[in-house]
Amino acid sequence: MTAVLDEVDELLDDIGFEPDSSVLTYRQAQVLALRERDISQADIAAELGTSRANVSSIEASARENLEKARETVAFAEALRAPVRVRVPEGTDLYDVPNQVYEACDEAGVKVDYTAPDLMKAVSDAAGSAITGREVSTPLIVGVTSDGMVRVRHQE
């Protein structure tokens, strides 16, 4: 297992992981990299000289930090997006592409998605905010000036 830990440390070095500028600590990055290799928390704990519960806590904190970072990036992109379409609860997913296309036309922004691809992108990004074909939690669909679609749950 020490070889795997050395391999992970080398990987983190090769990809330029910098804990000082990351939302992850070095230990969190190590644990995530080891878990991505399907190594059990118990085996990681044994290698790191700690408990499985501590490895579990490190992994949970790392995943939470990554989700917060993703949300922060999505928020920053939404601020810059010239097109923002509010999609209310109860909207049929099949109606979303036309709403987005109309808003993009008004703003002079080109969106490179067919209607089915746009519905899939919105549905995938919205996750549990879509039930069947219905928007069950209000959404904001943003389109950046380069045509990238970003979806946020409206709180």
From TrEMBL:
The keyword Transcription applies. Residues 69-151 form the DNA binding protein Tfx C-terminal domain. InterPro entries: RNA_pol_sigma70_r4, Tfx_C, Tfx_DNA-bd_arc, Tfx_DNA-bd_euryarc, Tfx_DNA-bd_sf_arc. Keywords: DNA-binding, Transcription, Transcription regulation. SUPFAM superfamilies: DNA-binding protein Tfx. Pfam families: Sigma70_r4 (PF04545), TFX_C (PF14601). GO terms for molecular function: DNA binding; DNA-binding transcription factor activity. One of its GO terms (biological process) is DNA-templated transcription initiation. Residues 23-66 form the RNA polymerase sigma-70 region domain. It comes from the Archaea. This is Transcriptional regulator.
